[in-house]
Amino acid sequence: MNLARLRRRAAWGLWIEILVRAAAPACAILLAYLAASLFGFGSPWAFPAILLLGASILVSQLARLRRPAGEEIDRRIEHVSGLRHRPIAMLEDAPENESPMAAAIWQLHARRITASLQNARAGRPAIHAELHDPFALRGLLLLLLLVGAISAGPAGLPRLSSAFSFPGWPFSGPSVNAWITQPAYTGAPPLVLSPGDDPVVLAGSGLTVIVTGMGRPPIAALGSTPMRFGGLAQNSFRADASLTASGKLRVGKWWHPLAVWNVTVVLAEPPKVQMSLPVPVDHALRIGWHAQDRYGVASLTATIMPAGHPKAEPEVLDLPLNGPDLKNASGVAKPDVSDSPYAGLDVAVTLAARNLAGVSGMAGPMIVHLPPAEFLDKTASALAALRQHLALDPNTQREQADALQKLAESPPSGISASADLQMAVLARQLSEGEMPADAAQSRMALLARQIQEGPDYGPAQALAAANQALEQALRQAITAGKPMDNDRLQQLLAAMHAALARHLLALGPAASVPGGPSASVGDLDKMVQQIAQDEASGQSAKAAAELNRLQQMLSALQSAKPMSAAQAKREAAADQAAQDLARLTQGESALLDQTNQGTATPGNQTTLQNQLSATRQGLGKAGISLPGLGNAAIAMDAAHDALADQNLGTAAAAEGSAIQELQKAASALAASSQGMSFGESAAPSAGDTDYGDGINGAPDEDSIPGILPSGENAAGAIQQQIIKNDGDPSLPSAVHQYYHRLLNQDPP
């Protein structure tokens, strides 16, 4: 090995040992202060003193250092390598005898020494602490450090941070004001930072630092991110930051901080959400829910995912939030799933509540079976099936496009040319990728509804828009407390009339309004005008109540459907029965007159009995059952027998009873027919008789001539006259209803 290199390595080892021994006293002092700090005895004022003491000792030790001599280096090599008799020193010797023999012997000796140095080593630095610390105080120091770290626990780092920081400037100087503004949704006031605070705040809070009394912007950092100060006033600077992560806020230079805070940033907790098992109700899902959040729930959504179809796109439904306290809210939502692409499948329903901080809490999933879509039209049903396949796997876009093209070429039911053309265009767009899968699903759902509804789809949508515009205008006028402009009102009414006419025309001759109130266009106009008058007169409560009734009528019109064959048959049977009952009442009334005159015969009553039997059979075939017809038949039988026995008084009483039962049946028929169809109210024709000023065109008792013949009971005469008039089948239905109400009252 090269001797010069070996000497350099040995010299470095000696230098390391010398420096470590020189720094050991200062390091021992710092370690002792570290142990004291863990036990809570450190302070910003003690730290500079410890540094000064340690630096003084270190300088005094360094001042005593001396450079290792060459002999020390050689002795180290020989000692580490185990060489005896100082062979390195022998290399520098020379023989005293210069004879050839002596020179040869010396060269041989030198070669032997050089050969022995081939395995020489410089050795590693060795401190030999036992020589400088005979009482093993170093072990005691390490033990104190270990015990201090265990006893301090989580408080260890804050204690060390405080103990190894410099004290604040003791003289008047820069001042630091800092505060944290928490998010607005918390409603909490700003948090002013004081010395020694360790604030815990929500993510998204704002930090503001103002330093006053400096000629230039200070140095500050939040964690590893520097803060930029801008001029606020003379010798005053301000910095703002958004808190997104925890860190130490240090204002000032590292060796002289003006202020230090440990800021902990936490995320807002998600809302706690509970959901009951969704229950299908008609075309909706009934979902009971409860959401609780410290700051309030901002939105509520239900996500529907078909079970067993991981490629399907989730369907998200927005649920309404209600209640004054959205921090602890409960409710029952009924989202409409009639247009869901997953109708008829098992789906997983997940409820998500998002709070004001934007954090969501989840409940579920829960498995429920969605009700199937109700499409009576075969083409609409096939189109809905294609839409479902596309929703379950959007990657089958081309396959569904081919199936849609075949459906357009050969629809299984009669559809309009417009719907057929729209299916073909949609198939082409879907096949060529011109329309995304989600947009295609929406278009297919719209087409299926259009085909299902038939020609009334467009008119029904237009009527809905016209009704909504009219309702909104009336409600805005009520809320504002100002009368509505008449021109605007007439314009909205005209739009509603036009849309309603197209709606009824599309439905056909008759429209079924199940459960809805029956009214004429004139009635609706009168109600709208009355609402406008109440608005103008300041009767807002009355106007609001009338508006609610108007909404019910308009909603019933909106839900009107074409009358089915069974409904049409039933209505035709009801119309025929109404005419038959009017003729029977008129005939029985005429028979009663003949009985009072003594000219009635049993055959006259038999004819009326046969007519009643035929009417009852016709109603039975249509599935209509009316009260009173059976009692009328019994009364007619009694009248027939009494006429056969020439018992005119008994016959007249039985005939009067039959008339009352017929009137009861006619009243029941009229009441049941009101909710069956919608149309213009019947008005008297030009040839009808003027029946005075009674209610709804019904006669006023005082206006009927000849109802008080001499010597007769006034109430009985009025009753007979009403029965005769009610027998006229050409009278409006409102007149017949009025007669029936009069006849059902007991005479005075």
SSE map:
Elements: H1 3-38, H2 46-63, H3 70-81, H4 87-91, H5 100-116, H6 129-132, H7 137-152, H8 156-163, E1 175-181, E2 191-192, E3 200-202, E4 206-212, E5 220-222, E6 225-226, E7 230-233, E8 236-242, E9 247-253, E10 256-266, E11 272-275, E12 279-281, E13 284-292, E14 297-306, E15 315-319, E16 328-333, E17 346-355, E18 360-369, H9 378-392, H10 397-409, H11 417-431, H12 437-453, H13 457-480, H14 486-507, E19 511-512, H15 521-536, H16 540-558, E20 561-562, H17 565-597, H18 602-621, H19 629-644, H20 648-673, H21 714-726, H22 733-743
Parallel strand pairs: 3-10
Antiparallel strand pairs: 1-2, 1-4, 4-8, 5-6, 5-9, 7-8, 9-10, 11-13, 12-13, 13-16, 14-15, 14-17, 17-18, 19-20
Q: So what's the oligomer here?
A: single chain
Q: Name the structural class.
A: alpha+beta
Strand order of the largest sheet: 2-1-4-8-7
Helix content: 40-55%
Amino-to-carboxy terminus distance: 147 Å
Strand content: 15-25%
Total of domains? 5
Unreliable sequence segments = 510-518, 674-715
What does this structure look like?
The protein has 5 domains: 102 residues, no CATH class; 99 residues, Immunoglobulins (Immunoglobulin-like, Sandwich); 98 residues, Immunoglobulin-like (Sandwich); 183 residues, no CATH class; 179 residues, no CATH class. It contains 22 helices and 20 strands. About 7% of the residues have low confidence. α9 packs antiparallel against α10 and α10 runs antiparallel to α11. It has a 5-stranded antiparallel sheet, with no helix packed on it. It has 748 residues and is α+β, with helices and mostly antiparallel strands.
